[in-house]
Structure formats: C-alpha cells, structure tokens
From TrEMBL:
Name listed for the protein in its UniProt record: Lytic transglycosylase
UniProt superkingdom: Bacteria
Keywords in alphabetical order: Signal
Domain Transglycosylase SLT, chain residue ranges per copy: 34-242
Lineage of source species: Bacteria, Pseudomonadati, Pseudomonadota, Alphaproteobacteria, Hyphomicrobiales
Keyword Ion transport: no
The organism of origin for this protein: Tardiphaga robiniae
Amino acid sequence: MTNRITAIAFAAVSFASVALAATSSQAAKCGGDFQTFIAAMSQEAAAAGVSQGVISQAFAGVTQDPAVLSFDRRQRGTFNKSFEQYVSTRVGQGRISMGLQMMQRHASLLSRIEQRFGVPPEIVVAIWGLESDFGKGDIGKMPVIRTLTTMAHDCRRTELFQGELIAALKILQRGDLPQRDLIGAYAGELGQTQFLPSSYIKYGVDFDGNGHVDLRHSVPDVLASTANLLKTAGFKGGQPYGEGTANFEAMREWNRATIYRKTIGYFADRLAAGR
C-alpha cells in the first residue's frame, strides 16, 4: 500500500494533495447526522458545477465507513525510522530490476515525457515503483466517494476532505473514470501513482490522446501526469535532486516527508546508474 496515505496523516497535506479543491467559504458542517451532511455536500457540489445526475448517482446509498476512520487514526509514526531502515524496505534489488525493465519498455514514452515536462525518466519511474510497484501492486479497493464522504464528515480535517470529495465528483462529471473505477486507498488516493482527486483535476494529463485522464489504466496518462505535477511545482530537468536542492524542495508537492523524498532520489540514482 502506498505511503501517500501516511503523508496526509503526518503532514496534513501530501505530495499531490496540496492542491485543494475546496472553493466554498461555507463548508458543510462536519459531525452530526450523516445524511444531513450529504445533503449539504450535494448543495456544495451543485454550486461547484457538478450536475444533479452525477451527484445523485455518486451519493446513492452512501454510508459511513468505520474502517476508514480506524485506519486513519492508526497512521501515526510510520516514518519514525531512519532513512537507512526505511529505504531498505522500499528499494530492493528486485524493485530496481523491475524499474530498469520499465524504463526500457517505456523508453520512447518516457523520452517524450521528459521532452515536454523536463522530468528525467528515473524520477518518474521511481515514483511509479514506490507508489504501486509499477501499476502491479495494490492501488486501493475502497470506493472513493464513500471514503471521502466519511473523512469529510469527520471534523479533524473536514475542509481538506470536503475539497477532495468535490474534486472526486468532478472526475465523474468530466467522464475521466466511471464510478465503478473510482476506487482507491484509505484517503481517497487514485491510480498508479496515487493522486488525490484535487491533484487529479489539477495535474492530470491526457497523454494517450483519448479525451480522458485515466490514472488507473493508462500508463501514458499516469507517467505524464506525475511529471506534470513535478514540473508545475518547479522541478527542473538537468539539475540535481538530492536533499538541499531546489528540485528536492519541488518534490514536496509530491510528498512533504523528507525521508520519502530521499527514497525517491535514492531509487532514481539506482535506476540512472543501471541504464
């Protein structure tokens, strides 16, 4: 499971989650009756331009998910390890070897992405590997609307997750994913590099040219969107990305945890060395 969940829990706003979708100054009141909260969020969504048909379909039968809140409350201290301890569990020889295979398999695609966004292939592939084992790992099985409604109703970070819920509804409105594919992890992260919905809306790129941003199934969309996020955050190609550099700081838009960004850099270095 991705570490982007824990980044939200520890740093309040994670990697691609810093672009909040909340635009209303009058957020729906958290706590209290759940159905009343959904009704208020339906009004918020309509004011944000989401159609009544999408709203009705998305919220039909939605109930709270106690497992989501339980998981969220357990996510304390995951990064309480040294870098050496952490990286040893995330970047082994098997993952490096697979990363090199992915770089070879998608060499042409990665070259086009680098030309457009200025982000080197090893950084993009390192993130892809860490987040979902190159799309082969667990990218979540939780219904995103239920997850985000549960988190938004909880009063600890209601504004953050109300914004993410509106963004998820906009993904449905745009037709990027059908609701059956709007499934993710325990904080609503979606796709092979685990974008929160607000980042999906802000940074998602239709790189395969089919008219939709599909971060679950389309490798071109996944990798280009990942590079676009970094470029937008100020990542500069041809520059170092180690701790203390401008590129390392730009990667805060991906994940605010220093240890995680160091792990991206370490993995990227191993991939670059093996090319």
